[in-house]
Amino acid sequence: MGSKPEQPIDPYLPQNGNRGYRVSRYELELQYKVVVNRLTGKALITAVTTEQRTRFALDLAQTLQVSKVLVNGRRAKYAHQRGKLTITPPQPIPAGGAIAVAIGYGGTPQPIRGQFGEVGWEELAEGSMVANQPNGAASWFPCDDHPSSKASYQITITTDSPFYALANGNLVRKQVKASQTTWVYEQAVPMPSYLATVQIGRYERRRVKGEPVPMFVVAPPRLRAKFDHDFGRQAQMMTTFQKMFGPYPFAEYTVVVTDDELEIPIEAQGISIFGANHCDGRRTSERLVAHELAHQWFGNSLTIRTWRDIWLHEGFACYAEWLWSESSGGPTADQLARAARQNLARQRQDILIGDPGPDLMFDDRLYKRGALTLHALRAQLGDAKFYALLYEWTARYRYGSVTSDDFMLLAGRFSPLPLNPLWDAWLYTKKLPELPASAVR
Questions:
Q1: Residue 73: CB partners within 8 Å, gap ≥ 6?
Q2: Model-level pTM?
Q3: First vs last Cα of the chain: how many Å apart?
Q4: pLDDT by residue for the chain (441 residues), tens digit each?
Q5: How far is Cα 381 from Cα 412, in angstroms, rounded to an integer?
């Protein structure tokens, strides 16, 4: 690494992400004691170097202590400070060389505190939950914590038997031994670290209505009736979104409802996590049910390369709420767009959606104005071309990393007129533009 600090991979989160290698796979073996919030882990990380170097780094919170590091089966020196685990292999690895890094670690996992509040591994009243976005993955495993770094995962969790443990992907093995149960999950589809998750609680898992995509709920038994009502139209949503956005990108979809209340639902790859408060038996959170499901396409399959393009996740998921409302007999997307614009016009206009800066990247105005950008685009292209564009967008970049430029370039192929004025007005000007007069039909 030399003595001078490296260029950050992402100026929005300059401390996160690392140079010199690309991870292809994480194999995590976790043991978690619920009562004392104690995590012990072994991580095997498979990567390829992109340049020759004498040392390289991974992101790992200081609340976890490292006990051993091996590189390609040989003990390696390491230093762990300021959230970076810096590893020096016994000899330099040439560019394009394969590395298998085995790390033993453990401790009391805590969320990472910062400008985004507390993110990462969180203790619940009975169990735990993980909400990594944007930089919390390092609170529970060593990783290259950046959205452009996608890899396959195997997550093994051993915990006390009364508890249900869920992670991303398919459950490939479950073993009960005395008072402990081991759960092994395989996520073969590339996933960034912030979408990796572990959810532990006194839950039951059951299949819910939905074809052809298998859908499940993992929740406390007491919430069963309320869930069935509140999420009763999720199968319909899945059908609607597949028509609009293309095939669902993963093998199955699971909704977790924690026994605790959560301020907002959380997305993970193939999984959405809601709080007990989102399950009130009155369908008050249906908008959020649609939002989180849409993230499976926009955020989980197509993932931004850098955080500045976060509107490609949140603007699309917010617009999906309006599209669901329109298709299910509620207010139309046009009515919702006009109401949202009116509301935004009363707020400060000091945000650039195309480059909001780290402090505003989760601002509600970004979500709404991102959705309005898509509504303005839909008005300009017309429905047939707009939906053809969305279909092509999700197909072309399935499981990949995307930028605003990628989307703008692709959209240009569906428009006879240049779209630059639209992008400039909606994404790169602080002043809020007017919506096109013609309502989208």
A1: 100, 102
A2: 0.97
A3: 56
A4: 344 568 899 999 999 999 999 999 999 999 999 999 999 999 999 999 999 989 999 999 999 999 999 999 999 999 999 999 999 999 999 999 999 999 999 999 999 998 889 999 999 999 999 999 999 999 999 999 999 999 999 999 999 999 999 999 999 999 999 899 999 999 999 999 999 999 999 999 999 988 899 999 999 999 999 999 999 999 999 999 999 999 999 999 999 999 999 999 999 999 999 999 999 999 999 999 999 999 999 999 999 999 999 999 999 999 999 999 999 999 999 999 999 999 999 999 999 999 999 999 999 999 999 999 999 999 999 999 999 999 999 999 999 999 999 999 999 999 999 999 999 999 999 999 999 986 555
A5: 10
What sections of 103-201 are H helices per DSSP?
Answer: none
CA 32, 197, 166, 265 dihedral sign is positive
Written as six digits, the tokens of 99 are 């590395």
Ordered domains of the chain (ranges, CATH): 21-198 (2.60.40.1730), 204-296 (3.30.2010.30), 304-427 (1.10.390.10)
- Per the CB < 8 A criterion, the answer to whether 40 and 73 are in contact is no
What are the structure tokens assigned to 341, written together?
Answer: 């614009």
Note the Cα 101 to chain centre separation in Å. Answer: 25
Query: What stretch of H or E contains 114?
Result: strand 112-114
Rounded to the nearest 10°, the torsion over CA 427, 325, 278, 281 is 170
Contact by Cβ (8 Å): 248, 193: no
Structure token digits, residue 314 = 């949140």
Find, among 365, 334, 338, 339, the residue nearest to 352 by Cα.
Answer: 365
HEC letters along 246-265: CCCCCCCEEEEECCCCCCCC
Q: What is the DSSP letter of 360?
A: G
Q: Is 182 helix (H, G, I), strand (E, B) or coil?
A: strand
Q: With contact defined as beta carbons under 8 Å apart, do 53 and 75 qualify?
A: no
User: CA Rg, the chain, in Å?
Assistant: 22
Which two structure tokens, joined as six digits, stand for 434?
Answer: 């007017």
Q: Cβ distance 183 to 131 under 8 Å?
A: no
Q: What does the block give as tokens for 115?
A: 């400008």
Residue 148 CA to residue 132 CA, distance in Å, equals: 15
Q: Find how far residue 30's CA is from the centre of its chain.
A: 21
Alpha-carbon torsion (218, 267, 21, 59), positive or negative: negative
